[in-house]
Amino acid sequence: MAEASAEAFMGNDDPIGRFLFDGEPNHIFLKKRFFRSLVTSCSPKALRQASSEKMEAVAIWFQPGLGHGEDVDADPFRPEDFSNPETLSRLAAVGGVIEELTESLGNEPQWYLHLAAVRPGFMNQGYSSRLVRPVLEKARAEGLPCTLITQSMENARKYAHWGFRVEREMPVPGSSERFYLMRTDA
């Protein structure tokens, strides 16, 4: 699943990956490591989904009551991993935005979509809908909202067709990048 996540984000030229590792000679390796960590670091209790054994699309949901307290980065970045001294400050800036937006989610029961990724070659074929829609329906039946944080307006537009709306937009300091906190109605 971690490989599928990395392939999806890198193959779709994710803007945060470009921003974080700009100027790094080893940027492809660093991006792959970063996008793999979105899967490998999250709680083992999170709901992990794949469209099939081929993993055309993958998703990870945090069920109501499950926070990030059990997240463990098995392969954290260290200063010596980077040749560009600005990379650490960019990582810290992105991390600060995500942390603040995560706190904005509040403590109410909710289904949190941690990750939805579709590998190149499988875009616009309904793979992510097959993973996302059943959880949205479950949340509605439970009377709970679904939430997510995404890193581009393009993604926000895609999530809007599932009923998500932008509740908060936050810029990454020192860049033109932005993150969006989104929520569905309960």
Overall description:
The chain has 186 residues and is an alpha+beta fold. The chain has one domain (2-71, 92-183): 3-Layer(aba) Sandwich (Aminopeptidase). The chain has helices at residues 2-11, 15-20, 27-40, 86-104, 127-142, 153-160; strands at 47-50, 57-62, 111-118, 146-150, 165-171, 178-183. Helix 5 links the parallel strand 3 (111-118) and strand 4. Helix 1 (2-11) crosses helix 3 (27-40). The protein is globular and about 50 Å long.
The CATH class name reads Alpha Beta
SS-derived structural category: alpha+beta
How many strand segments?
6
Poorly predicted segments: none
Q: Kindly report the oligomeric state of this protein.
A: single chain
> What would you call the shape?
globular
Order of strands across the main sheet: 1-2-3-4-6-5
Query: How do the SSEs run, as a string of H and E?
Result: HHHEEHEHEHEE
Whole-angstrom Rg: 16 Å
Number of helices: 6
Portion in helices: 25-40%
Give the topology, please.
Blueprint: H1 2-11, H2 15-20, H3 27-40, E1 47-50, E2 57-62, H4 86-104, E3 111-118, H5 127-142, E4 146-150, H6 153-160, E5 165-171, E6 178-183
Parallel strand pairs: 3-4
Antiparallel strand pairs: 1-2, 2-3, 4-6, 5-6
